[in-house]
């Protein structure tokens, strides 16, 4: 399919200066409106002429969506706060370093300077076929081009693939799930606060979107409760090029221990399915156990139960098993080779 990358199709550019104005504009345009944050995902869609909104609502002039604030129970991060600010904020680094580590590993410094936390958690999948404008299930068609014997599917899903095998590529999403973050959404009916894991949808629920956002909805902030402040954290991302690249797989865990016993734990992975997965069964299996290689082994095996590889992504099964194991044992990144080992 020909892709034209010269100029974007014409649209009306609207630059509100308050959330209320942005909502008003979004309501006016409905599904013909497009929310623009840092533009790193948005501009690809627009330049490739795959998405053709009538109006683009640019959030960059809305001051109330920017910045990191301390609250009575943790912190609140405005959706338009850049990934660089998230990675470098002293409070996040001190108390919630899982998030700063994950943000620091997103792409390159330039992308982190421009990309926002709201855009990072809301970005679309990078499946080649879907992004190339192929009429797949996710685009409203009746086939998955990535799930055929000759497809390029090295990066695709091993879990929860229901017709579509695309994955969610966000690095910060699993860290926010492990931190039990809450996402604040403004809808036409008012404010809605959802758990980070509840922000995402699997293809069996809605194959056309990765998040619960409907036309007109705005993610305004992300709240991190103090409950996991200062926990022992583990974040690891495996990617093709370490200078900058999307994750082939990542893992995030937060844990409190007494002596060597795991008291409280939350673990999530991303790039294994169309939504970041909280590994609740793994958490339940290791809680109360010694933090040992044996417990890590149990966790790793349990995490990949039910995984189904495609033609070229079977490597993701041992990779996920090993990353989950390390997220329990806390063994520092032993290098990519060790993580791939079967
Ligand atoms: C070359 C390259 C490499 C990358 N590598 C990585 C990587 O390794 N890891 C990683 O995690 N990410 C990676 N990214 C993604 C990047 O980090 C951005 O975070 C992401 O593309 C979107 O952020 P943005 O602020 O640019 O949002 P935009 O592109 O403007 O928006 C993304 C989507 O979210 C919607 N949206 C944005 N903000 C809101 C809001 N407040 N309310 C409602 N909807 C909203 C937009 O409508 C759009 O659909 C990469 C991107 C590029 C171009």
Structure, explained:
This protein has 342 residues and is of the alpha+beta class. Among the domains are: 12-60, Uridine Diphospho-n-acetylenolpyruvylglucosamine Reductase, domain 2, CATH 3.30.43.10; 233-340, CO dehydrogenase flavoprotein, C-terminal domain (Enolase-like, domain 1), CATH 3.30.390.50. The protein is built from 13 helices and 12 strands. It has a 5-stranded antiparallel sheet with strand order 4-5-8-6-7, with no helix packed on it. Strands 9-10-11-12 form a 4-stranded antiparallel sheet. A 3-stranded parallel sheet has the order 1-3-2, covered by helices on one side. Strand 11 (261-270) and strand 12 form a beta hairpin. Helix 10 (280-286) packs antiparallel against helix 11 (293-303) and helix 11 packs antiparallel against helix 12 (316-329). The longest helix is centred in the C-terminal third of the chain and has 14 residues, at 316-329. The radius of gyration is 20 Å and the shape is globular. The model is unreliable at 333-337 (pLDDT under 50). Flavin-adenine dinucleotide binds next to strand 2, helix 7 and strand 8. Residues 34-42, 59, 79, 106-107, 111, 115-116, 118-120, 122-124, 169-171, 213, 218-219, 244-246 line the site of flavin-adenine dinucleotide.
List the helices and strands and how they pair.
Blueprint: E1 12-14, H1 19-29, E2 33-36, H2 42-47, E3 55-58, E4 68-71, E5 74-78, H3 83-88, H4 90-95, H5 97-104, H6 109-114, H7 117-122, H8 128-131, H9 172-178, E6 182-187, E7 190-195, E8 218-225, E9 232-238, E10 249-258, E11 261-270, E12 277-278, H10 280-286, H11 293-303, H12 316-329, H13 336-340
Parallel strand pairs: 1-3, 2-3
Antiparallel strand pairs: 4-5, 5-8, 6-7, 6-8, 9-10, 10-11, 11-12
Helix pairs in contact: 10-11, 11-12
The chain binds flavin-adenine dinucleotide (FAD).
């Amino acid at each position: 399919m020909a892709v034209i990358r010269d100029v974007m199709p014409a649209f009306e550019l609207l630059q509100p200066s308050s959330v209320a104005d942005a909502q008003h504009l979004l309501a006016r345009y409905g599904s013909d409106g497009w929310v623009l944050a840092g533009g790193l995902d948005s501009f690809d869609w627009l330049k490739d002429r795959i998405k053709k909104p009538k109006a683009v609502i640019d959030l960059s002039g809305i001051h109330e969506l920017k910045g990191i604030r301390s609250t009575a129970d943790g912190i609140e991060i405005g959706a338009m706060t850049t990934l660089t600010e998230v990675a470098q904020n002293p409070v996040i680094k001190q108390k919630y370093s899982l998030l700063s580590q994950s943000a620091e590993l997103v792409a390159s410094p330039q992308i982190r300077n421009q990309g926002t936390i709201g855009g990072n958690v809301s970005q679309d999948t990078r499946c080649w076929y879907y992004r190339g404008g192929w009429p797949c299930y996710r685009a409203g068609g009746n086939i998955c081009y990535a799930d055929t014997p000759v497809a390029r599917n090295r990066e695709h899903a091993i879990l929860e693939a229901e017709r579509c095998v695309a994955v969610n590529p966000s690095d910060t999403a699993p860290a926010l799930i492990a931190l039990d973050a809450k996402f604040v959404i403004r809808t036409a009916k008012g404010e809605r606060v959802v758990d980070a894991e509840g922000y995402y949808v699997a293809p069996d629920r809605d194959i056309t979107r990765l998040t619960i956002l409907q036309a007109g909805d705005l993610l305004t902030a992300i709240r991190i409760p103090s409950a996991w402040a200062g926990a022992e954290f583990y974040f690891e991302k495996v990617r093709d090029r370490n200078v900058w690249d999307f994750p082939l797989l990542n893992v995030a865990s937060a844990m409190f221990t007494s002596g060597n016993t795991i008291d409280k734990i939350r673990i999530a992975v991303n790039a294994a399915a169309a939504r970041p997965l909280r590994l609740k069964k793994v958490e339940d299996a290791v809680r109360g156990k010694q933090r040992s290689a044996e417990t890590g082994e149990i966790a790793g095996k349990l995490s990949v139960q039910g995984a189904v590889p495609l033609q070229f992504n079977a490597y993701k099964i041992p990779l996920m098993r090993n990353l989950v194991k390390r997220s329990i044992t806390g063994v520092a990144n032993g290098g990519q080779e060790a993580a791939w080992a079967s």
